[in-house]
Amino acid sequence: MQSDNTDFLRFVFILFKAMQKDNLGYVYRGRFTQEITDNILALTENKLEKEEQSSKIKKRVYSILVECLQNITRHQNDIKDDLPDNNGLFVIQKHDDKYFITTGNMVMNNNIDYIKKLIETINSLEKEDLKNYYKIVLEGGSLSSKGGAGLGLIDMARKSGNKLHYHFSRINKDSSFFYLHTIPSLEGIEGSLEHKEESLNNIINIHNTLNKENILLVSNGPFNQESLMILLGSLEGQMKGTISHKKKVFYIVVEMLQNIVKHGYTLDSSHNSVPGVFIIGENKGLYTIITGNYVDINKTKALKKKLENVNSLSMEKLDEYFNKCLFNFESDSSKKAGLGIIDLRIKSGNPLSYSFIKTAQDSVFFSLQTVITTV
Amino acid sequence: MTETLIIEAKEDTPKIVFDPANRLFQISASSLPENAIGFYEPVIKWLNDYSVNPIDLTVFDFSFEYFNTASAKQIAKILLILENIAKEHEVVINWHYKKEDSDMLSSGSRFSKLIDLNFNFVGY
Fold first, then answer.
1. Number of domains chain B is built from
2. Which of A58, A327, B62, B73 has the fewest CB atoms within 10 Å of its CB?
3. Bridging pattern class, strands B5-7 and B15-19
4. For the segment A222-246, what is each residue's pLDDT rounded down to a tens digit?
5. Residue whose C-alpha is closest to residue A25's, from A124, A99, A87, A89
6. Which residue of A has its CA nearest to B97?
């Protein structure tokens, strides 16, 4: 495996930039089980708890979230499982004090007209009329075979106080991917429509990258010990595999996240957190974990040398190197990369891939990828 | 005799119980603090004080759920102090690990090879 994988890992930086642009906080792509839904809710609740003052907004965002997630789980089984890419999508972002929630799922092409018509109808109705429409659909109940489809959308529109935005991306002659973009707001003040379209387009682009690279989860910093602990908590439920495999993934995730917290470079030193991106991909039980963050340009040479060294050593030599560093307390107080990188190499059983992309005068975007072999 | 040291576990720091009167020396739960040196400083200081006049048999229980590499270094420091105590007193290390956590067992066996102490490995 080539280790200085700049071309391959370039997408990490592109993803990071794209997410920064729209302040995307958290992206999940995959099957939506009850466990995963609960985790996403817990994670968002925690985020809201910390960031949001208004309890009214908190409640509103939360209740829309529940509705959105239920919509995905309700409809993910509409599609026959033989399609390779039947993964749902969940995105939450915050922009100018507003929250944006985007969900996505696959739909059959012969349902598109019905969904479009339904959303257009919902969008054309005023608040009071929407309430009545909800009652009509509730009593009629025959609009959708699932019983809930129409209601879910009406409810989302009612709770958000804003119009629903959507997009269908054709997959093949039978199916398309349905994006639904909701902006919960208090007073029904909408942002400019232009921004919404741009933001939805950006999400669609990001989603394409996730599909291509088979990525399950992206969390966009800022990173600090606190956000690290929350992220770790949410991972537990999203992982598949044996306990020992999960544990290994956990070990590696902690080291990689703490690497960002400890060594990440921030231009704005007033915050005690570091910008970065954390990505987990899974393919047939093989986990790929990628982190991306800025590093001080003066430190890249030493870092690169260390990575090259770690990749070149045999397992036996790595063990010796680890032991040497373990008992070297002199480097204790410095911020030098200590055991972390050696540990990643040993625990994963694979060489580390990395890339350095020069971004500005004094910083470089560093991506590090660890692939974990199933034991 | 040295006074007891008890630190309750937090989400990212372990529980510490050092109680010579009751012959308890335990570190448990998870250790992944951002500043491992800071967290372990009082722990190591306590052990250094204790090493001056230890009890005849020190049975030390490590039952980590998880620890990061920064904590590994501090654990190495603790073991070195215990190694020193073992020169004139008896010291036994019980290294507890979850049976499905082979990495925790390897970490313990790594320490046991590098440090001259009597290690028991206890899978649960």
1. 1
2. A327
3. antiparallel
4. 787 877 877 787 676 666 677 778 8
5. A99
6. A244
Residues spanned by the domain of B70:
5-123
Partners of A251 on chain B (C-beta within 8 Å) are 66, 103
- Region A122-140 average pLDDT: 85
Q: In chain A, which segments carry CATH 3.30.565.10?
A: 26-213
pLDDT band for position B1 (50/70/90)?
Answer: low
Pick from A232, A236, A246, A251 the residue to mutate for testing the B interface (most B CBs within 10 Å).
A251
The CATH fold assigned to A221-372 is Heat Shock Protein 90 (3.30.565)
- Asked if the Cβ–Cβ distance from B68 to A258 is below 8 Å, we say yes
- Which CATH number fits the domain that encloses residue B107? 3.30.750
A272 touches chain B (CB under 8 A): no
* Interface predicted TM-score (ipTM) of this complex, two decimals: 0.91
Structure-token match 């939450």, residue found: A92
Burial A190-224 (b: 16+ CB within 10 A, else e): eeeeeebeebbebbbebbeebeebbbbbbbbbbbb
The first and second tokens of residue A223, run together, are 């990173």
- CATH T-level fold of A26-213: Heat Shock Protein 90 (3.30.565)
* A-chain residues near B102 (CB < 8 A): 244, 375
